[in-house]
Automatic annotation (TrEMBL):
PROSITE patterns: FMN_HYDROXY_ACID_DH_1 (PS00557), FMN_HYDROXY_ACID_DH_2 (PS51349). Pfam families: FMN_dh. Residues 1-381 form the FMN hydroxy acid dehydrogenase domain. It comes from Paracoccus amoyensis. FMN binds at residues 78-80, 107, 128, 130, 156, 252, 274, 307-311, 330-331. The active site is at H276. GO terms for molecular function: FMN binding; oxidoreductase activity, acting on CH-OH group of donors. This is Alpha-hydroxy-acid oxidizing protein. Keywords: Flavoprotein, FMN, Oxidoreductase.
Length: 388
């Protein structure tokens, strides 16, 4: 097994082992990719305060995320087509998460279905919902998540219309891939991926194909999804979904303090400060820059979680110190999955956990719950430059 010391190592292997169209699908943002890049470069602008001669024994990274215990304040974010990064990807990632003791969230646009993941795991996982126009499908997918005993519904609010990702169009992204000459040439060098895919039956959008009316194959699927995202989604519809679900609810994609206030008044269990990993509104501010403004607006009224740009335990620490209760990772675990399947996801979690623990100690803290602004040095204007 190669020596993996950081998420960047997993990223390199992911690139080498996974078909270009799926690696590119993960490693891209919308349009100019400005927000995608700033999600990570803004983390790098935040510096840490070193503290010495403080007792650093008996450290703890344990926390609870909407009331569920977790070994660290990190969850695996919903990622569409995870089962195309590696055969049976959603099941493998969910298993790695449950063994590590952190939450896993299954995307609506997953390859393995809700039922499939439930059958192949032992602990409840969260389910992420995209709101579709087809009311029958919407009701049935919520019911299926209930039947599978999902622990929370993560309602994504920032993708009712799709931000364009140039690479996906140029690569002709589809699941499963269409066998064009460039795709075949590319696949010839990714034999591990190909063998895995030949051995699994899970190669289509498992939550949708066979469940939504008029979607029997992948060619009808792309037009169905493009038409199906409900552009009329508003707070009234969100309230209806909350009532249909009846369980714990997390609102994902909040990036503005006013929206955060509405979400807190609405009474969800948590919000995720997120710009969808820079894949939607290109030109939006990075999540880590918006986070402190949102915490200031609603911090004590609702659990504030964040994602977008986290590639290390240091990044997790910075988000917690700026007021996030917990964080989510997308690409960081997808790189692990594409590199080495379940072992790779476990490795990604181990890397981030170790970095978080060591960095916390060097900052003179012993418990993730004690992290705060005292641990950070922010560049001048970091909080005020854009007047958020
Ligand atoms: C390849 C990819 C697919 C994604 N698919 C979904 C999805 O189906 N549903 C969703 O709510 N978010 C989706 N996201 C967004 C993630 O849940 C998360 O917000 C984002 O990855 C966080 O940024 P990071 O990748 O920099 O950690 C996706 C992200 C990526 C990279």
């Amino acid at each position: 097994m190669p020596v993996i010391t950081c998420i960047e190592d997993l990223k390199r292997l992911h690139k080498a082992r996974t078909p270009k169209m799926f690696y590119d699908y993960a490693e891209s943002g919308s349009y100019t990719e400005q927000t995608f890049h700033e999600n990570t470069t803004d983390f790098a602008k935040i510096k840490l305060r070193q503290k010495v001669a403080v007792d650093m024994s008996n450290r703890s990274t344990a926390t609870d995320i909407i009331g569920f215990p977790a070994t660290m304040p990190v969850a695996l974010a919903p990622v569409g087509l995870t089962g195309m990064q590696h055969a049976d990807g959603e099941i493998l990632a969910a298993r790695a998460a449950e063994k590590f003791g952190v939450p896993f969230c299954l995307s609506t646009m997953s390859i393995c279905s809700i039922e499939d993941v439930a059958e192949n795991t032992t602990k409840p996982f969260m389910f992420q919902l995209y709101v579709m126009k087809d009311q029958e499908f919407l009701a049935s997918i919520i019911e299926r998540a209930k039947q599978a005993n999902c622990s929370a519904l993560v309602l994504t609010l920032d993708l009712q219309i799709l931000g364009q990702r140039h690479k996906d169009m140029k690569n002709g992204l589809s699941a499963p891939p269409k066998f064009t000459l460039p795709t075949l040439l590319d696949l010839a060098t990714r034999w591990r991926w190909g063998i895995g895919m030949m051995q699994t039956k899970r190669r289509h959008f498992g939550n949708i194909v066979g469940h939504a009316k008029g979607v029997g194959d992948t060619s009808s699927l792309s037009s169905w999804t493009a038409e199906q995202f409900d552009e009329r989604l508003d707070w009234d519809k969100i309230a209806k979904i909350r009532d249909m679900w009846g369980g714990k609810l997390i609102l994902k994609g909040i990036l503005d303090p006013d929206d955060a206030r509405i979400a807190a008044d609405f009474g969800a269990d948590a919000i995720i400060v997120s710009n969808h990993g820079g894949r939607q509104l290109d030109g939006a501010l990075s999540s880590i820059r918006m986070l402190p403004h949102i915490v200031e607006a609603v911090g004590d009224r609702i659990e504030v979680q964040m994602d977008s740009g986290i590639r290390s335990g240091q990044d997790v620490l910075k988000a917690l110190a700026l007021g996030a209760h917990s964080t989510w990772i997308g690409r960081a675990f997808i790189h692990g999955l594409g590199a080495m399947g379940e072992v790779g996801v476990t490795r990604a979690l181990e890397v981030i956990h170790k970095e978080l623990d060591t960095t916390m100690a060097l900052c003179g803290e012993r418990n993730v719950k004690d992290l705060g602004r005292q641990n950070l040095l922010l560049p001048e204007g970091f909080l005020t430059e854009y007047g958020a």
